[in-house]
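Batch queue: ligand-bound targets. Current item pairs a single chain with coenzyme A. No template structures supplied; prediction is de novo from sequence plus SMILES. Inputs echoed for audit trail.
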Amino acid sequence: MNTLTDIEFRPLVIPASIDAPDAADFLEMVRVRNLVYRQISGHDDHAIAADELLPHFAPSEYEERNMWIVVDGDAVIGRAAIDFPLENDSKVGFWLIELQQDSWSRGIGTAAYELIERTARDRGRSVLQSWAEHPAALGPTLAPPTGFGTIPEDHAARFFLRHGYSLEQVERNSAFDLTAPFDTVERLLAEARAASPEYRVVQWFAPTPAEYVDGYAWMKSRMVTDAPAAGLEFDEETWDAARIAEHDAKYVGRTMQVTAAQHIATGELCAFNELVIGKDRTEASHQEDTLVLKEHRGHKLGTLVKCAGLLSWREVAPLSPRVITYNAEENRPMLDINEAIGFAPIAYEGAWKKVLS
Ligand SMILES: CC(C)(COP(=O)(O)OP(=O)(O)OC[C@H]1O[C@@H](n2cnc3c(N)ncnc32)[C@H](O)[C@@H]1OP(=O)(O)O)[C@@H](O)C(=O)NCCC(=O)NCCS
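Prediction returned. Tokens below.
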């Protein structure tokens, strides 16, 4: 085994395509990413193909991405990254360090963290935040100030604590079984339709059709302001047609279905739900953003867009075994809907924060 001084943090080269001559490090980064997630979660539902991840690394007007691969001799054993939103006066940075399990407890994580914190300070960022899955384990647990949820005080939790982080929020990862009968979804959809006669369901696949761009942009801008953030800090985001186009370009090669509720009288889009799957239609599907605008809550629009989305998803991805989603553990209104539909918890994540002095 090499010593810590032999470990290299090599800035990731972003290739033009995954077949480009300089794509080797990117391919290794994706391999180690998928391996680490399998080691933590015990399944491959978080895996993504290299060509489907690459568009997320395209230069962006809205975010600066910095990533390094962790190289031990000839072997890529992990990755480290910190992203800086480019909103005005942003103080935040979002980071990750992911090492394959046989490289833990050698001080590599700590060395990577020094690089992360130094990079954040150099960019004038003072609020650092990171998420990690904490698999169920016996022993002591930690609870966030929200009072909702706990995580085991495991290796990753001790790592965060030792580097001055506090646990701010617990997120629940749930799964919906797409192979089971849809009776409940159909019943809930019928109830939601009956409770929302002033609204209709509209659906599209990314890229967003021109007629929905403005409404979708407004709803996307409300995600950071309207979702429960506990003690975490997020910048207000401005979304317009250009930002929607950049967002949609990240899903090139994958399928994103957006199901929205439209107020019939005004044409306003008031709620939406996103479902995503890659080229491999036998993999797990991912539910991404879901939101009901504040002024339109109380009409069962959350249930409406989720159930309508799941029902048509059965035709889009009939071989996908399940849908994976994440919710804040204190987000009772959203969890009530998901639990009624049949989503069941499978894992918990911690959201961690440190304010640099
Ligand atoms: C969390 C994670 C990044 C930590 O990395 P790591 O390399 O194991 O961390 P370190 O080795 O620097 O420190 C971990 C432990 O090893 C000990 N250690 C540090 N240097 C050491 C060395 N040279 N030899 C032996 N042990 C050492 C530390 O004291 C620490 O002990 P503790 O768990 O009792 O606090 C890593 O486990 C990981 O990738 N986990 C999966 C992804 C994840 O959860 N990431 C969290 C951030 S997104």
